[in-house]
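Q: Sequence in, structure out?
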Amino acid sequence: MSNISEPLDVEFYREARFKKVKLSGQVVEVPEDWEVVRLGDVAELIMGQSPPSETYNENKEGMPFLQGKAEFGTIFPRHIKYTTKPLKIAKKGSVLVSVRAPVGDVNLANMDYCIGRGLASICSYNSDNTFLFYQLKLRKTELEQKSGGSTFKAIGRKDLEEFLIIKPPLPEQKKIATVLKTIDDAIEAVQKSIEKLKRIKKGLMQRLLTRGINHTRFKKTEIGEIPEEWEVVRIREIAEVVRGGSPRPKGDPRYFSQKPTGIHWITISDLSKYRNGVYLTGTDEFLTKEGKRYSRYLESGTLVLTNSGTVGIPAVLAINGCIHDGYLALLNIKNADKFYLYYIFENMRNYFFSIAPKGTQANLNTSIVSNVRIPLPPLPEQKKIAEILMTIDNVIKLKEKKKEKLERMKKKVMDLLLSGKVRVK
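A: Exactly. Output:
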């Protein structure tokens, strides 16, 4: 695997001479010595065809089989199924493109595959397939725009054959591909490190939250075996569980503001956008003073838990704000460390989902959560357990930031190299 810290055998320089060409209905500039060609003129296209379903298996009998984009990775696919009767084959090294909703996602074939009707294979005659992969990846939106169908988007052979691509000289294609693949290898290495750390954390959570630290004597309880020094308590014995509130109707200017008011409106969507390890760090929406009256205002440092839809996700607020009614909050915590409780809740997420009443979606309420039993070590041990797990979370967070930085760099480098603004030799 390439290391991004190792010097590459390439030289970069800025291009000064361009010509105007038309791609996907738009006029763009490319270096004067680059060509614009039809994809069908420079590559063999194979449209996928699904083999008989009775030939599918997961016992590694026959050829690896890909049905569609669902099996795509960042660069290479991860197959699950095999078929003993392959009909259409994508050769190792060819570009795989999703041709049925969603349209335009690409991968590289890391082995020979049988491909189903959701995919097509593109193999260049006299170009570099990895370069072609990166070009199609950058131009995914243009491929999507060529797809037909009002309810089910798809792109056919003719549209792929007519798709115009840019074609630098072959040696330059190879060097561009090498630069971009080196960055991707670095991203993949960081991602593997993150995944390994998450596996370590999961194993540690399961052990620390049931066996504790350096215990040798255990007792059986209604929630399983725990150290003799630990207790089993209901949440209501150590905290008050309250629910958030949502002003109605949504968007009413009496309650909601498009401008910062100092009263953050913390919604469920903020978890995916502003979650930073243990903490929920920000919001995009705000309430007026009147809106605050109809919600639940909490101080920074409060432990919250989602109670609707995606139930059981904990977070510690890093800001003051009002919580949406899709959250519960733990107030007046006593004899318990909030970060220990955070990891208890994280470890119990599947359990929370299993006990949540199901309607159109799963829903917890204050009564259900208040009566949940949890193991409770002495407070000093709670703090030690939380500290160990938070240390791993902090390392994961640093790795994720590194990955995000590499991904931003890759996007800038792709834009420069694949437009010819910066050349390599």
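The mean pLDDT is 94.
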